Amino acid sequence: MAIFHLDFKIVKRSEGRSSVAKAAYHARCRITDERTGDTYDYSRRADLYGHFILAPVNAPQHIVKDSTALWNEVESVERQNNGQTARYFDVAIPAELNNDDKKKLVLEYCQKNFVDKGMIADIAFHDLDSDNPHAHVMLTLKTIEPEGFGKKERSWNDRKISVLWRESWSAMANSYLAAAGSSERIDHRSLQAQHEEAIEKAAVALDNEEKALWLAKATETNRPAMKRIHSAKWRSKAAQEQRATEQAVRDAAKQEAVEVYKTFSELDLEIVVDVRSFTITHLAEPEEIVLPKIRSGSSAIEPQRPELVAPAPHTRMRGVKSYRDKSKVSKVIAGKKPSVRISDSGTNTILKTSTSQNPNRASRSAPERVKRKQAIPRQDNIFKRFTAILVDFIRGKFIWAKTEKKKVDIISKEHDKRIAENYVFDEVLGHPVPIAEYEKRAKFNQDDYKPTSDEIRRFPSRPKKEQPESDYRMDLIPHASKDKAPRMRPQGYRK
User: Fold this and answer.
1) In the beta sheet, which residues pair with residue 309?
2) CA separation for the pair 97, 94 (Å, rounded)
3) Which of 50, 118, 178, 315 would staple 125 via disulfide (CB 3.0–4.6 Å)?
4) In 56-79, which positions are buried (b, 16+ CB within 10 angstroms) versus exposed (e)?
5) Quick check: 60 and 146 in contact, CB under 8 A?
6) Amino acid 380: pLDDT
7) Rg of the chain over CA atoms, in angstroms?
């Protein structure tokens, strides 16, 4: 079966990876990393079905001659220890194609999407004859010039371009499948996105054939996606059981889609389809609405009410049809389409729109004149709130300002009481001070105040210490002067 798998990743030195090691694994060969001296050998594996290197026309030949020269050159030009060296992906090739078409499809895809933009693509094909044919592709991150590699092209890292690459692969693979005569198709979008699109397309479909196709698509994609199994665990019993279960769910969804297509494509045109529940309801059959004929000789025209006439008891009733339950019948009985008639001595006449003008028709069908109600001005909530605020303001300021008792501010009253209990106004400082501090200052200012032992201990006198000797002392000797007073001068002083 044809499946879609295409995932892009980056070789990062920060994760301990090397593009040389990745290239050796893909090409199933032996390569030595000249930067680190490590050797990677995968030449014993025998699942390689082809190896190609696609490069732009201006790429030097000594770089693209083989994988060893290419990726050693990539590793040498990358100078950062945590740099990125390559982009790689593995793609699942449709098993419905032959080996030549498989290789041609991958090569054409890489040439169109990568090489033409300036990248070098190293392509290796694996397991083309098995149920899991795939290809490994490594891409360079830097632009290539005749002198060698240039700077990295940051636009290639955009996530939007990766979506275009995935879409391009599905389009090219489907074209190859159609050319090979296979009905299988792949889609790069998730199953949920495909299911939602099919529901929307079915809701606006114009004919039953188109509606049936989209409903079948919605049924087929209404299932969980198949989980990927690593190649190392593919042969395990648990992996085989998991894949068999997922395959059974997929086959059941495809079979149900076939039943949906058969059911909806064979329906009549006059149906109503509920695409959410996949049920079909036929349009209601017509009902008759009979209007009594108005007498022309009456002085006043009385309004007539229509009378509902039920369908005949032998009328065939239609219900709801479902492809899941063939015996399902709707509980709602459908009637006939309404048609308007006027009774004339037991004879009903169908009302139809006529091109000719009838003067008497306007007078008969003119409605009775109704007195016009007086318009009431509309008040928005904002206007109501503003009016209420304005009335309260005027009432408080002007109307009842003198007669209304003044409200007592409880918070201010409690605050004043607390100030009066705990503070005393100090005339010297000019502001209130705590009572404890005021009493302490008054006690200290008394003439007979004597400090306590605690206060003396807290405020000791400055100790009397002798002045330290100078650090710049000199040996001085007395000498005589004109006033016969001895002076001290250092030894060896010249007069």
Assistant:
1) 288
2) 6
3) 50
4) beebbeebbeebbbbbbbbbeebe
5) yes
6) 54
7) 50
CA gap 303, 309 in Å, rounded: 19
Tokens at 320, concatenated: 């709801």
pTM of the model: 0.54
Residue type, 331: K
Q: How far apart are CA 287 and CA 285, in angstroms?
A: 7
- Between the CA atoms of 94, 99, 101 and 107, what dihedral angle is there, to the nearest 10 degrees? 90
Contact partners, residue 357, CB within 8 Å, separation at least 6? none
Whether residue 352 is predicted with pLDDT greater than 50 in this model: the reply is: no
Place of tokens 């105040």: 449
- CA-CA distance, 43 to 28, in Å (whole number)? 5
The H or E element spanning position 24 is helix 19-27
How far apart CA 256 and CA 246 sit, in angstroms, is 15
DSSP H/E element including 89: strand 84-92
| Predicted local distance difference test score (pLDDT) of residue 346 | 44
Tens of pLDDT, residue by residue over 378-391, are 555 666 667 777 77
Per-residue pLDDT, 32: 94
DSSP assignment letter at 404: S
pLDDT at 281: 55
The answer to whether residue 334 scores a pLDDT higher than 80 is no
3-state class (DSSP) for residue 91: strand
pLDDT tens digits along 429-448? 777 888 888 888 787 778 77
* 3-state SS assignment for residue 491: coil
Contact between 433 and 426 (Cβ < 8 Å): yes
Cβ proximity of 351 and 289 under 8 Å: no
> How many C-beta atoms lie closer than 10 Å to residue 19's C-beta?
26
On whether the CB atoms of residues 140 and 156 are closer than 8 A, the answer is: no
Helix (H, G, I), strand (E, B), or coil: what is residue 492?
coil
Helix H or strand E encompassing 443: helix 435-444
Q: Give the three-class secondary structure for 42.
A: coil
Burial 364-385 (b: 16+ CB within 10 A, else e): eeeeeeeeeeeeeeeeeeeeee
Q: How confident is the model at residue 399 (pLDDT cuts 50, 70, 90)?
A: low
Q: What angle do CA 12, 18, 21 make, to 5 degrees?
A: 145
Between 393 and 173, the higher pLDDT residue:
173
Query: What are the structure tokens assigned to 94, written together?
Result: 């449709």
**441: Cα separation from own chain's centroid:** 72
Percent share of the chain, pLDDT over 90 = 33
Helix (H, G, I), strand (E, B) or coil at 218: helix
Residue that wins the pLDDT comparison between 470 and 188: 188
Using the structure block, give the residue that is written with the tokens 């920060």. Answer: 14
